[in-house]
Amino acid sequence: MEDKKLLKVFGLNIKFERQKQGITQDKVAEALNVSIVYVSNVEAGKHSVSLVNAKKFADFYNKSLDYLLTEKN
After folding, report:
1. Which of 35, 41, 45, 60 sits a CA distance of 20 to 30 A from 69?
2. Does domain 3-61 match CATH 3.30.930.10?
3. DSSP state of 47
4. Rounded average pLDDT over 51-61
């Protein structure tokens, strides 16, 4: 998968999980010790994520990295 598509897929998946759980971006940012702008940009697929932060998102949503990196229909 190309880089831009991978970022978009990851972003859409974490956004979906956040909305499904009824959590604000502010709460995610606070829990992961990052800025709300960072969370917003990651969800929009505009910002690359380090492996450490990708794992933090996965742990926060109780999902595997594989799940968050897999394109859903």
Report:
1. 35
2. no
3. S
4. 97
